[in-house]
Write a structure and sequence with these properties.
The chain is mainly β and 205 residues long. It contains one helix and twelve strands. It folds into two domains: 88 residues, Trypsin-like serine proteases (Thrombin, subunit H); 74 residues, Thrombin, subunit H, CATH 2.40.10.10. Pfam families: Trypsin_2 (PF13365).
């Protein structure tokens, strides 16, 4: 199970920390790496339909290296955000698959303050979705709030989804939905900049 693509992120409003969560590298090119994470990183606590502007985002890479990130895209409905950082392709991107290939799952995360790597195992459950997003699924992996935005893998190392948090269980956004959201981000970017090269969301090394 590769963990080098898992990072911790925190957003700051001045010196005050706004939110901390986990994320995973999903794409990189010669100049930029992109981190998939939860939009809770920038969401306003007073209005869930808005973000807090001008937050400083710090990304904690392996070996406790910290780097400033830039919010590139977000979707508050799906609770997805993409943060870009200067190229760091040693953080291997997750390979995106639409369905888990094994019954067993592993949820990964990283604590921002300590940089400690976190992992917990579990299974997909048949629990009914109580949230507004009907595409969410649930696993029995037990995570803390620091694991929000972290990746969920099957035992073959295939990317299954992005972990969210609930006290009654661990919801996750499936990878096929994430891929749809990432493609919508790409469509927005190409329309604005006239980019013709497609991003490699199946990058691996």
């Amino acid at each position: 199970m590769k963990s080098s693509g898992v990072v911790a992120l925190a957003s700051f409003n001045g010196k005050e920390r706004h939110f901390a969560c986990a994320g995973v590298s999903v794409d990189c090119n010669e100049s930029t790496s992109r981190i998939l994470t939860s939009a809770s990183l920038v969401r306003s606590s007073g209005d869930e339909n808005k973000i807090v502007d001008n937050l400083r985002i710090e990304v904690c890479l392996p070996m406790e290296q910290r780097i400033i990130g830039t919010l590139q895209h977000y979707d508050l409905s799906y609770n997805v955000a993409v943060v870009s950082i200067p190229n760091s392709c040693k953080n291997h991107a997750a390979i995106i698959f639409e369905e888990p290939q094994t019954k067993g799952l592993v949820a990964l995360g990283c604590a921002f303050k300590s940089g400690n790597f976190m992992a917990t195992d579990g299974l997909v459950t048949g629990e009914r979705n109580k949230f507004d997003c009907r595409e969410l699924k649930f696993s029995t992996c037990k995570i803390t709030k620091a694991g929000i935005g972290g990746p969920l893998f099957d035992l073959n190392g295939n990317f299954v989804g992005m972990n969210l948090y609930d006290s009654d269980g661990t919801p996750y956004l499936p990878s096929d939905v994430i891929q749809k959201v990432l493609r919508s981000f790409y469509a927005e970017r190409t329309a604005a900049a006239g980019i013709t090269e497609k991003p490699n969301y199946r990058y691996s090394s």
